[in-house]
Amino acid sequence: MDRRDLSDLLIFQAVAEAGSFTRAAAKLGRAQSGVSQAMSDFEARLNVPLLARTTRSVRPTQAGQRLLEEIAPALRQISDGLDVAKAGQDGLTGTVRLTAVAHAAKQILVPALPEFLDQHPNVTVDLHVSDKFVDIVAEGFDAGVRFGSHLEQDMISLPLGPEIGTVVVGAPSYFERRGRPMSLEDLATHDCIGARSASHGDIFPWPFRRADRSIEVRVDCHFASNEAPIIVEAAINGLGLACTFEPLVADHLEAGRLETCLEPFCVAWSGYHIYYPSRRQKSAALTELIKLLQQRRKE
285: Cβ–Cβ under 8 A, 6 or more apart, which residues? Predict the structure, then answer.
């Protein structure tokens, strides 16, 4: 391997993840022109275009994406190994990169961070919040937090909380105007608010259980959104019924802004889990964060 390759691979990873030479240069602490020239030289040396450049963004080519998927775990392992070596003398160091859905980030991760960062002041936590499916290996994350039933293959996962129930809710004004559905078949005559997938754009079917059998109901939607808070707000304003997670509407239910229906048919989902690649050694910092999160779960 050319002695320049490791440095250029780190630059390539930074540019691919940032989608910009300017942002990558800032992250690396280098001049933008130097980063751009290094990538041009690297591509010339390999005789393979790794980045597709436009006036607005930079993205990996097909060959570049394949290379990124191959090198990301190795580069993270090198970084983690250096962090472990440093930790032997100076305590934990390094960056823990996490991806999580918004509710898990707000309710589980952020409340734990003050204690964690107070204990480990040389550690940085980089939290990417998105409801979109994320390939944590390809995108260089150390771990993710998702529902236990929605995890990638080849992952080690540990629970961080109890099961989370779903509810169908509507505003009192909606029920006064349209009545209350008593069966799943009644949903066909009601206005429903759809939840659109952030990953593929489809409307999620509503999950139910009847006679010990799981059922998915595809509802007709007069309004849909990919943001849970907007869906809840639409229900409060009487646009229709919404199927959501009980913790997201607990305060509104207690205040009477929303009411539930179809309770016998609603289901519970496996709770949030933290997961990470089974084939990659955890960093010392991630190990300590997981210990703290599981300790808080038991409290």
Answer: 83, 87, 92, 93, 94, 95, 96, 120, 123
Handedness of CA 19, 20, 23, 28 (dihedral sign): positive
Residues 50, 64: Cα–Cα separation, whole Å: 4
CA distances from 178 to 30, 153, 222 (A): 62, 44, 15
CA 141, CA 12: separation in Å to the nearest integer?
Answer: 16
What string of DSSP letters covers 208-274? EEETTEEEEE---EEEEES-HHHHHHHHHTTS-EEEEEHHHHHHHHHHTS-EEE-GGG--EE--EEE
Which range (72-86, 190-204, 250-264, 284-298) has the least confidence? 72-86
* The two three-digit tokens of residue 15, written as one number: 């540019």
Indicate whether this model's pTM tops 0.90. Answer: no
Do the Cβ atoms of 97 and 141 come closer than 8 Å? Answer: yes
The Cα-based distances of 95 to 65, 84, 258 in angstroms read: 23, 12, 41
Give the whole-angstrom CA distance, residue 283 versus residue 14. 20
